[in-house]
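Check this:
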Amino acid sequence: ASASGLAASTPTHVVASTRSGRIGGVREQGVQVFRGIRYGADTAPRRFQPALQEATWRGVRDALGYAASAPQNGDEGPGSEDCLFLNVWTPGLRDGARRPILFYIHGGGYNNGSGSHALYDGVNLCRRGDVVVVTVNHRLNAFGYLYLGESGDERLRDAGNVGQLDLIDALRWVREHAHEFGGDAGNVTVFGQSGGGAKIATLMAMPEADGLFHRAMTMSGQQVTAAGPRAAAQRTALFLAELGLGPRDTAALLAMPMARLLEATRVRDPSRVENTSLYFGPVLDTHNLPRHPFYPDAPAQSARIPMVIGNTRDETRAFLGNDEANFALTWDQLPQKLREQQYVDLSPEVVIAEYRRLYPDYTPSEAFFAATTAGRSWRGAIIEAEERAKQGAPAWVYQLDWRSPAEGGRLRAFHTLDIPLVFDNVAAKGSKTGDDARARAMAARMSEVLIALA
């Protein structure tokens, strides 16, 4: 394929028709695979604004390889503002089978990630459940969630939620093309891990998303409240100050090089307990997001949607387990460590005393990982589940206790461990599950839960 993605002389094995032109994919283990399908136009000319539909093309455009991720720092960066792509795995094309569609939203908070990781490959799910699998890229960090509602520029009234609007556009694309890819437009299950789960909870309260999906499964990702406009505007002011701009310097902001904007996202966020860069996420802007996702109650528009809410037992071992010292803490060191990492504003001494009462066999390090997990990752899941129960809406919860063998087993059931299990991809690069009978049995169990929901 040429740099533009247009078909070169290499023949393709399978061809599908989309609203903008034909695409060529490949067969992998009996599954038709299309990677890097456009569902929107390049966002660079419309930075911080809702995306336009992709342009049409002639001939067959290759969809053989993953396309650009959203602009971001880290391993998957720097990415590109031309990032509105999705990937499809399907057992059949145009066969009228009306298969359930599984639409996955990646993690990485609202800052990082893409739908192109090896762990998200959909072949095994397709083969196990006769389903269609879709993964998606969308705008992140400042490009997707920088609030500019106080800029006075009417073009930017949706800035703060365009990352969510990208997901809505992708879901509309799926609805429009379900028949072509052998899927059922009336049976779409959204599932997502970490930030992906939070994005799903937010979509459940967005009027424009109503009716675009019919089941939901969130994995270690919740969003009880969104950022209010005041807090979002305060973060925007810090971001603009880092760029040397004022609140109404929108022309300069729109012309700023992508790399400079990414650099500015690293500015310290004083509202966060942990030493971290600026938070970007959905904003309560009254029109795209007129209410908090799960406060003061569960959104009425999503009451009919069956929902699974899950977490892992040892979430914070994924990111606090990178510090060797956290595995050798003393009781004297523990209070200060909790002050640095505990999301809930409680006296560390009270928290420690209660853990020692409930779990007298815990070491200081075990109490540290347990307390940070309980305050950081579980509260939102419990709130969402309770609000669904009050509403009388169908909901289930899971907790993954199954332990990874990685690093001598010390990471236990860490954040992200459920991804290769639910995708049935324990043998994929990056999985920390191992590929023995024990891992394959748990992968079968978790992937079949998802398929049963769908």
